[in-house]
Amino acid sequence: MRFHYRARDRRGAALAGAVEADSAEAVAERLMRSGITPIDIEAQATRGDLGSRLAALRARLTPRGIDDTDLARLARELHTLCRAGIPLTPALRVLAASTHKPPLAELLQGLADDLEAGRDLASALGRHPRLFSHLFISLVRVGETSGRLDQALLQLARHLDAERDNRERVKAALRYPLVVIGAVLIAIGVINNFVVPTFSGVFARLGADLPLATRALMASSEFTLRWWPLLLAGSALGGLALRHWLRSRDGRYHWGRLQLQLPLLGAILQRAALARFTRSLGLALGAGVPLLQSLSVAAGSLDNDYLEARAAQMRSGVERGESLSRTAASSGLFTPLVLQMLSVGEQTGALDELLLETAEHYEREVGQQLKTLNDSLEPILICAVGALVLLLALGVFLPMWDLAAAARSG
Fold this sequence. Notes:
The protein has 410 residues and is mostly helical. 76% of the residues lie in helices and 5% in strands. Strand 1 (2-8) and strand 2 form a beta hairpin. Helix 10 packs across helix 13 (305-319), helix 11 packs antiparallel against helix 16 and helix 13 (305-319) runs antiparallel to helix 14 (324-331).
């Protein structure tokens, strides 16, 4: 791919040119090794360069928001540029020039400006709490202090990639049942509002005795057609009330506990959250973050207020002088195997390594339980679809068959 660049040499003179490279990062690395500071790097699409044109099209179709995938790529690219010896400020400006997402480019330019104003990278990241987690900022701060920022960025990239993979596995497992349930609900709506009213007029004109299933379908359809404005308004008000409740502190707490009590799904959600907790705690401890601060950082990764409250109890126990394994046991969240691993980790001084192994253990359990969930839901969904078809057959087609049989006998 061909890239055009604007840069300045050691004397500050402006330069411009074009080079062939695999990526903008490779161009920046080549220029920096030559003593040239890049200012702007852009990919040039030529007529014969199909890859460049596809890349430009993909860039135009890219979502405008900043997600975890962007943050993982940012951490990995910063790791590469830092390993190449490129200072942070030019590295951020190079990444800002090479990205096709305006919000991400604006963020990177802002970070570079903060660094030029005298802030360190961790403080600059801390000005964007909605994007960068406490774990991200803490690891960057420790990396800057210890002179191992490149390693901290690599750990963050791997952590974010693992988090994304776990979320994608959960979403993929839930996608099939949600699609089937949605299709069933749509089918019920179509039958209730369009199919049944058509047949209701036919049955009313014939004046025949109708089966119970048909009368139930007709009553449900009539109720829906008559009262749909109230049903719609009630659904909207109920949704707004639920949203307000979930935004309240008590609502988030009780909703977090309710999620863990869901049949089939609750155990999976709990283990997925604990996998995030133990991985975040292990990364923070391995980077040199103090235990109390690491517990606070890891609690923020749970995304469940109920579990966060239990993690806060663990932190309070450690503040009182109790061991981590004992406070974990009193929380009631961990299995005996995990508690034993925590105890061994405290005794051997390898707590961070065993926490990461614990995270892998939970992730394996989540994968197995997701497979079990799929195997369990498939027959349930098949039975639900079969019941819908049976209801339709009994409610709509059975009277028609009876009428046809009566007509033939008459």
